[in-house]
Design a protein that fits this description.
The protein contains 8 helices and 19 strands. The chain has helices at 25-36, 59-69, 71-74, 96-99, 103-108, 155-166, 169-174, 209-222; strands at residues 11-16, 42-45, 79-81, 123-127, 130-134, 177-181, 194-195, 198-199, 201-202, 207-208, 227-230, 236-239, 242-243, 246-247, 258-262, 283-287, 292-298, 303-310, 316-323. The strands form 5 sheets. The protein has a 7-stranded mixed β-sheet, with helices on one face. Strands 3-2-1-17-18-19 form a 6-stranded mixed β-sheet. A hairpin with a 4-residue loop joins strand 17 and strand 18 (303-310). It is globular, with a radius of gyration of 18 Å.
């Protein structure tokens, strides 16, 4: 899915996460309507796709229902995905052992991985002037939630090699934007994900934000990742460029990675509206009262625009422009 550079112009990616088939009717209707109007070029779903595991005794039919509902988009646009915790296995005791280790996810989605061992758990690709990295926050790095389940290889070694290649001057000149997609966030100011602005691990939610920070943040900073998109938290939050729990800049010539949490596509478990107080300095905007979706428009090598819409009324709730000179 590499767009030739000589033909590269502005393009738009539809981004959402944590959708499922329950409480997602408005989001589905909005993004399908936009898709039918040709308002984006491709799609990224940042994990927790169908929530089939929460429909214990209708696991496969829930997966089928999700695909049928999203057919108007999936048959027209590349539908890119990352694994979330709800892709792990069926909770049906008769299906658990046959479906654990992300078996169904890897059978239903075939992403452009150059590593057969990784299957569709983590991969990267180029599109026009952007290098996209899709990472697994669920497996394949030290202290991952599901450990080395499925034996998908060493993601951490792969990620550093990929970032090193993408950040070479000759490559960065061609593709100045590096964007990471992953399910769980490092930075979220929802209760259970950080305390006093510092990422934490919590079994109850579950979150492993501290582990993610200790494992990946230095790599993102070292290789100048621009944006990380995440889900998992069932709300929307836009954060400022941040490193080591400190806001480093605004969005003009950002000095570090900033992340967008967009885990409110709609899901059976409901919305997240429990925020930590006071709001951390790195948290720019929080919204948890409705489900929603986002549009990322890459205008050129120096400008991009991010917009977030609430699903029930299709109102623009948040927007930010990023400039790199």
């Amino acid at each position: 899915m590499t767009q030739p550079l000589k033909e590269a112009g502005p393009f738009t990616i539809g981004i959402w996460g944590d959708m499922g088939i329950t409480n997602s009717e408005n989001t589905m209707a909005r993004v399908i309507e936009r898709g039918q109007k040709g308002e984006f070029d491709w799609i990224f779903h940042v994990g927790d796709i169908s929530y089939a595991d929460d429909h214990v005794f209708s696991f496969q039919s829930t997966w089928n229902s999700f695909f049928q509902s999203m057919q108007p988009l999936m048959t027209r646009y590349p539908y890119m995905v990352v694994p979330g915790n709800h892709e792990w296995a069926s909770r049906d005791p008769f299906l658990y052992f046959a479906t654990r280790n992300f078996v169904v996810y890897n059978h239903r989605f075939m992403m452009p991985s150059a590593n057969p061992q990784a299957q569709s758990m983590y991969y990267s690709f180029d599109y026009a002037n952007v290098h996209i990295i899709s990472m697994s926050t669920e497996t394949s790095y030290p202290n991952a939630p599901y450990g080395s389940a499925g034996d998908f290889g060493d993601e951490l070694a792969w990620l550093e090699a990929d970032l090193q290649e993408a950040n070479l001057p000759e490559n960065r000149k061609i593709r100045p934007w590096i964007i990471v997609m992953g399910h769980r966030p490092i930075y979220s100011s929802a209760v259970g994900y950080s305390k006093n602005g510092v990422p934490i691990n919590s079994i109850l939610h579950p979150s492993n934000s501290l582990t993610l920070q200790e494992t990946f943040e230095d790599l993102f900073y070292k290789y100048h990742v621009d944006i990380a998109f995440n889900g998992h938290v069932h709300s929307y939050e836009r954060n400022y460029p941040t490193y080591k729990n400190k806001r480093t800049s605004g969005y003009e010539n950002p000095k570090s990675t900033f992340n967008i949490v967009i885990g409110n596509g709609g899901n059976i478990e409901g919305k997240e509206q429990d925020w930590t107080t006071p709001q951390p300095e790195w948290s720019g905007f929080r919204f948890g009262s409705d489900y929603g979706y986002g549009l990322l428009t890459i205008s050129n090598d120096t400008h991009l625009e991010w917009s977030f819409y609430s699903a029930s009324d299709n109102v623009l709730r948040d927007q930010v422009n990023v400039v790199k000179n």
